[in-house]
Amino acid sequence: MATKKYVAAVDQGTTSTRFMVFNHGGEVVSSHQLEHQQIYPKPGWVEHDPMEIWQRTQEVIKGALAKGVSAEEIAAIGVTNQRETTVVWNKKTGKPYYNAIVWQDTRTKEICDELAKDGGQDRFRKKVGLPLATYFSGPKIKWILDNIPGVREDAEKGEAVFGNIDTWIIWWLTGGPNGGAHVTDVTNASRTMLMNLETLDWDDEILHILGIPRQMLPKIRPSSDPNVYGYTKENGPLGTAIPVAGDLGDQQAALVGQTCFNVGEAKNTYGTGCFMLLNTGTKPVQSKSGLLTTLGYKFGKEPAVYALEGSIAITGALVQWLRDNLKFFEKSSDIEAIARTVEDNGGIYFVPAFSGLFAPYWRSDARGVIVGLTRYINKGHICRAALEATAYQTKDVLEAMNKDSGVKLAALKVDGGMVYNELLMQFQSDILNVPVIRPKVAETTALGASYAAGLAVGFWDNLDDLRKNWIIDKTWHPKMDEATREKLYKGWLKAVERTFNWVE
Q1: 144 near 88, Cβ under 8 Å?
Q2: Contact 170/188 with Cβ under 8 angstroms?
Q3: Mind giving me the DSSP string for 95-160?
Q4: Nearest-angstrom CA–CA distance, 185 and 297
Q5: How far is C-alpha 417 from the chain's CA centre?
Q6: Rounded distance, CA 279 to CA 397, Å?
Q7: From CA 494, how far away is CA 477, in angstroms rounded?
Q8: Which of 213, 231, 273, 381 has its CA 20 to 30 A from that of 159?
């Protein structure tokens, strides 16, 4: 029998899927990544093909194993995923009834508006920690039940089942139609708008109001589960039985990967969107400033740990938009060189409210704007303003976190694809006036899911084992004076106001 040297994770993101294998020191041993198609049937609608995502998952697993890792050496597998993206499928056939409705999709605005007529946008917030918004899975499930023929009948019969992408992947990994585990973890469940934060169970009253049959929903389990969710199948992509034992929504996985296990520790992940999470301990903190109260993680029988989250819809996606829609550059990484051709933003601000604004504004009526344009402005200024938008949106969220938690952030741990953009990281430090710290392994999402799976099977003994793996790669310190910082941020807030009330 091969010795268990590694732990692995499926990291299923908004634009791509990868399989990463880590050693005991938390270093990447092997990795393979593939993109999947983004489907835009109408303005504001965003979909993925769930079968394509499962296909890519199998391909990346095989691709990573082909780089010199044997499946027999893997002790456990974790799954981490784009959150809120909603799939409803037939558990007998494994076929989805409809494409996955992606977290950025805004088609459920009418459903949310209708629900808000009784009790406002915060109608369920006390129970679920979330405002009524198109972002979350609950209204998406309702849309599928209301609009796709036959789904409601099958759901009543117990044949149509729901999952966020974690549930979909785990179900297939552990057998699919042949006894696949229909489970989710507390972090993903906390993004549906259907889970009660106190009981960590589905809330019957909310299910009743939304008309969602309880039997559709997966069983809620710990994020790191010594009882494991299930085992991979011999006829599956791994070719052998490996415990699937960790599950975390991608942002919570990054919180774990950054080892933010103490109250007051925070991380910011720069991906398609941007997500800042602050560990608030074993009691949920209700936000008064537009943040989400969410689950951070739950390890085995230990109490659940909560977090405050600021979610920003469009950050890396803005760079992709400049690349793909406007053909400003060929590779996303080219933006930094173009932005460096100018000294500053030339007086313009770019607010990328492409699918409304998330935290701390929650305005689905907002749309993107570039303000302050003069004939002086060139491509460099637009690229620079696009990068700065990510840093300003992060500051919006941090201001709200300081208000809610009373905890003043001493430093920000960062991860995700954009943290290699030196210009952005320096500006982020400048505008926040705190050091910004990038760890050695910046792919902390997959690492966090691996940690959850590894803890469950005893590959790592405890949290201190994980903390030892966290090593600083680079720190940026603020260099901007207070007057400049204030002036720039004032301009940003003015620009944000210009985005409101575009959609009636």
Answers
A1: yes
A2: no
A3: -BSSPEEPTT--TTHHHHHHHHTTT-TTTTHHHHS--S-TTSHHHHHHHHHHHSTTHHHHHHTT-E
A4: 9
A5: 13
A6: 15
A7: 27
A8: 231
In terms of Cβ atoms closer than 10 Å to its own Cβ (0-12, 13-18, 19+), residue 83 is: buried
Residue type (1 letter), 434: V
**For the purposes of burial, counting CB atoms within 10 Å of the CB of 498, is it exposed (0-12), middle (13-18) or buried (19 or more)?**
middle
DSSP line for 149-173? TTHHHHHHTT-EEEEEHHHHHHHHH
Task: Specify the 3-state DSSP secondary structure of 124.
Answer: coil
348 φψ region: left (φ > 0), alpha (ψ -120 to 50), beta (else): beta
Beta-sheet pairing, 16-22 with 28-35:
antiparallel
Structure tokens at 424: 């952005």
CA 416 to chain centroid: 11
Tens digit of each residue's pLDDT (9 = 90 or more) over 438-462:
998 878 999 999 999 999 999 999 9
Helix (H, G, I), strand (E, B) or coil at 55: helix
Residue 71 DSSP code: G
pTM here? 0.88
β-pairing, 436-439 vs 472-476, is: antiparallel
User: Could you report the per-residue pLDDT of 15-72, keeping only the tens digit for each?
Assistant: 999 999 999 999 999 999 999 999 999 988 999 999 999 999 999 999 999 998 999 9
Cα–Cα–Cα angle for 421, 423, 426, rounded to 5 degrees: 105
β partners of residue 267:
277, 413
